[in-house]
Design brief:
Elements (H helix, E strand, L loop, with lengths): L1 E6 L5 H14 L4 E6 L4 H8 L4 E3 L10 H12 L3 E5 L1 H14 L3 E5 L11 H15 L4 E4 L2 H9 L7 E3 L15 H7 L8 E6 L8 H12 L5 E6 L5 H11 L5 E5 L4 H7 L2 E4 L8 H8 L4 E4 L14 E4 L4 H13 L2 H17 L2 H19 L1
Parallel strand pairs: 1-2, 1-4, 2-3, 4-5, 5-6, 6-7, 8-9, 8-11, 9-10, 11-12, 12-13
């Protein structure tokens, strides 16, 4: 079986982690290759991970010369299935599909109607383009059952949608610097403080405002806690202004983009995610590798992993009061931070490894090929 994966190559965060984690294991089971359209950090990290990857460079999003190159590559190498990830790859696949007559599948990593929510131009141009492109695929992989139901409600055939939750590579070595060195990098005085962190692009869909409001509530009662925000984005200016207006800037640290995320997780005590929409985010799985318990909004498939009071807590979207209450409880019961972190790692080991994710993909590929025959 030969499967070709297409992705833009400008990806960061969860999509990047997903492909690298998946391909590391997939190549132990089948013949798989990645082609991307931008040569960036994704390509470099994939090469370092030993993944079979090539760049078909696009001059810009409208450069369709790559379609002919892809057609020749697919026919020459005899790929059985083309698997796409993300809006750019989906758009290219729409034009490629009628040339190659191969089954095509795409993974729904996020709510495609919210992907460009913070950029007006991209929202009015790329969101409709991606919506149209998605309708042309033969099959879909949803990262959570919630996302599968989202697709069904939007008119996609339930019979063509598979659900595979994200998995993380538990075998690869984790590289990170010490907590002290990480805090010194940003001149953060973290001694004798509980450190709460969120790592996510600062966009509306990640709802950092709820994180800030919860921090404000906690800081009215105590000052032995600090909050780290890793990431950049279109909502950054507003969130920073909100912190200043609340008068809590001495306890909130904006780190910008952090490329060594495991150093971030190693430095914090509590991992938080306040997103309005998610599929099954890698920031929870990555934090789990370093035994960091998580408080998250109950969105996407997160409730398949987080069990209240056992390995973390789930809160409703926008519920800063509940987030503050959970943080208050942990401050008074600090031994629970470590216990729940250990429980979270055990939960990931049992159900969300990248090996299991790759095996599920192979079952889907087998089904598609047999169905086509």
């Amino acid at each position: 079986m030969k499967v070709l994966h297409l992705i833009s190559g400008g990806d960061t965060g969860g999509a990047k982690t997903h492909i690298i984690s998946l391909m590391r294991q997939l190549n132990k089971l089948i013949d798989a290759k990645v082609i991307c359209f931008i040569k960036d950090t994704f390509f470099i990290e994939a090469v370092e991970a030993g993944i079979n990857i090539e760049v078909f460079q696009q001059k810009n999003r409208t450069d369709m010369s790559v379609i002919s190159r892809l057609e020749k590559e697919i026919k020459k190498e005899g790929y059985d299935i083309i698997h796409c990830h993300g809006a750019r790859a989906n758009f290219i696949a729409m034009f490629l599909k009628h040339r190659i007559k191969k089954p095509m599948i795409t993974t729904i990593h996020s709510d495609y109607k919210l992907d460009f929510k913070d950029n007006f131009y991209k929202k009015i141009v790329y969101t409709p383009m991606n919506s149209i492109a998605l309708k042309n695929f033969d099959y879909y992989i949803a990262i959570s059952e919630t996302f599968k139901q989202m697709l069904v409600k939007r008119g996609f055939s339930e019979e063509k949608i598979f659900t595979v939750y994200n998995g993380i590579d538990l075998e690869s070595k984790i590289e990170y610097i010490s907590k002290e060195d990480f805090l010194n990098r940003y001149n953060i005085p973290g001694e004798d403080k509980i450190i709460v962190g969120i790592i996510a692009r600062i966009d509306l869909v990640k709802d950092h405002e709820t994180f800030i409001k919860a921090a404000y509530k906690v800081l009215q009662k105590r000052k032995d806690i600090i909050f780290l925000i890793a990431g950049t984005g279109n909502d950054e200016k507003r969130i920073k202004s909100l912190v200043n207006e609340m008068g809590i800037s001495d306890y909130i640290y904006f780190l910008g983009f952090v490329d060594d995320q495991y150093s971030f997780f190693n430095a914090i005590d509590i991992n938080v995610l306040t997103s309005i929409s998610e599929s099954f985010p890698y920031v929870i799985l990555e934090g789990a590798r370093l035994k960091k318990m998580t408080i998250s909004t109950d969105v996407g498939g997160i409730n398949r992993l987080i069990r209240d009071g056992y390995n973390g807590w789930l809160i409703k979207v926008g519920d800063s009061e509940a987030l503050a209450e959970k943080l208050d409880y942990l401050m008074e019961n600090k031994e629970m931070i470590k216990t729940m972190g250990e429980n979270l790692l055990n939960s990931v080991k049992q159900n969300f490894s990248s090996r299991k994710m790759a095996e599920e993909h192979c079952k889907i590929y087998d089904y598609i090929i047999q169905h086509r025959r």
